[in-house]
């Protein structure tokens, strides 16, 4: 099932779930006990001014024809979403065996209750060594993360998907934190996380990367980012209308000669046509109309923002 402008599916907590590919394994197409596998990676479209975004995942529930299957996620620590950007994803499930066939929904359980003490025991190192779900800001301020309905019902993704017989449904869920973190703080002093998630079938996805001119990336008061829009959409601020399908931070990198370059990477984009634009503030864009980007499966496409 593909819809919207470009085959990108932007999913909030009650959004529509991507039907994953797979031949065979449908209702009545094989033995009752035929098995398949499912893999799920978690990735992040990053956010400025945060050192860590730590999410505690505890279980994943799959619903098929009224039958619920719960897979426990045994992680020693929360997952720091900021460590898994661009083409990187945290393997939440890897080749997990499930009965093949059609599934109505998936629920990803998270520990993100209102008024919790998430992160109170974090040691402010590089890893998420605290408990619960929380965010560490650039000034080392720690705030618990609250996901509305997340503690009770988890991230319930509705709409259906297929686990193929003797095959693997392999996909990535990418949190877009620039669109998900709500400020100011919500009730009880929590930072509110209303997840906007892109679900991508990995076999149909490619990668977008490129270089940004140093003068653009280092302008005064610039928080350099790249926004990716559906084809034909004029770049615009995140306001709930024609929002970008993905965002990426622009980071300084040192090349082989010791020179500093500014680069970005957006992973897990479904194949298709897009408009890409650079921004310092999320309001003004360069170029105003964006640059075209054609993404193909399992390839890397380059779009630079450099002087002509």
Could you characterize what this model shows?
The protein is mostly beta strands. It folds into 2 domains: 10-202; 207-302, Immunoglobulin-like (Sandwich). The chain is 4% helix and 48% strand. The protein is built from 3 helices and 23 strands. Strands 6-3-9-10-14-13 form a 6-stranded mixed beta sheet. Strands 1-15-12-2-7 form a 5-stranded mixed beta sheet. Strand 21 and strand 22 form a beta hairpin. The longest helix is centred in the middle third of the chain and has 4 residues, at 150-153. The protein is globular, with a radius of gyration of 20 Å. The model is unreliable at 1-31 (pLDDT under 50).
What does the secondary structure layout of this molecule look like, with pairings?
Blueprint: E1 10-11, E2 35-45, E3 50-55, E4 57-64, E5 67-72, E6 79-80, E7 90-99, E8 101-110, E9 134-137, E10 142-146, H1 150-153, E11 155-163, E12 168-176, H2 177-180, E13 181-182, E14 191-193, E15 197-201, E16 205-212, H3 214-217, E17 225-230, E18 246-249, E19 251-254, E20 260-270, E21 272-279, E22 285-295, E23 300-302
Parallel strand pairs: 2-12, 10-14, 16-23
Antiparallel strand pairs: 1-15, 2-7, 3-6, 3-9, 4-5, 4-8, 8-11, 9-10, 12-15, 13-14, 16-20, 17-18, 17-21, 19-20, 21-22
């Amino acid at each position: 099932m593909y819809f919207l402008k470009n085959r990108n599916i932007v999913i909030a907590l009650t959004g529509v779930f991507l039907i994953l590919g797979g031949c065979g394994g449908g209702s009545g197409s094989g033995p009752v006990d035929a098995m398949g596998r499912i893999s799920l990676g978690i990735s992040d479209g990053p956010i400025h001014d945060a050192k860590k975004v730590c999410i505690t995942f505890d279980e994943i529930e799959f619903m098929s024809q009224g039958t619920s299957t719960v897979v426990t996620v045994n992680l020693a620590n929360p997952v720091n979403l900021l460590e898994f950007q661009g083409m990187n994803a945290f393997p939440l499930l890897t080749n997990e065996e499930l009965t093949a066939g059609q599934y109505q929904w998936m629920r990803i359980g998270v520990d993100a209750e209102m008024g919790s003490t998430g992160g109170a025991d974090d040691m402010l190192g590089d890893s998420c060594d605290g408990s619960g779900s929380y965010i560490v800001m650039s000034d080392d301020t720690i705030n618990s993360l609250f996901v509305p309905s997340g503690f009770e019902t988890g991230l319930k993704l509705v709409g259906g998907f297929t686990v193929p017989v003797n095959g693997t449904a392999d996909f990535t869920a990418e949190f877009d934190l620039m669109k998900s973190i709500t400020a100011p703080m919500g009730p009880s002093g929590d930072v509110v996380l209303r997840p906007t998630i892109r679900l991508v079938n990995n076999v149909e996805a490619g990668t977008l990367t490129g270089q940004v001119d140093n003068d653009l990336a280092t302008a005064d008061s610039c928080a350099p980012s790249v926004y990716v829009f559906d084809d034909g959409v004029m770049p615009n601020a995140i306001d709930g209308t024609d929002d970008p399908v993905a965002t990426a931070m622009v980071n300084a990198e040192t090349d082989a000669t010791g020179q500093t370059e500014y680069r970005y990477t957006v992973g897990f984009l479904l194949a298709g046509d897009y408009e890409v634009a650079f921004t310092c503030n999320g309001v003004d864009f360069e170029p105003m109309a964006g640059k075209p980007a054609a993404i193909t499966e399992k390839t890397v496409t380059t779009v630079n923002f450099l002087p002509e």
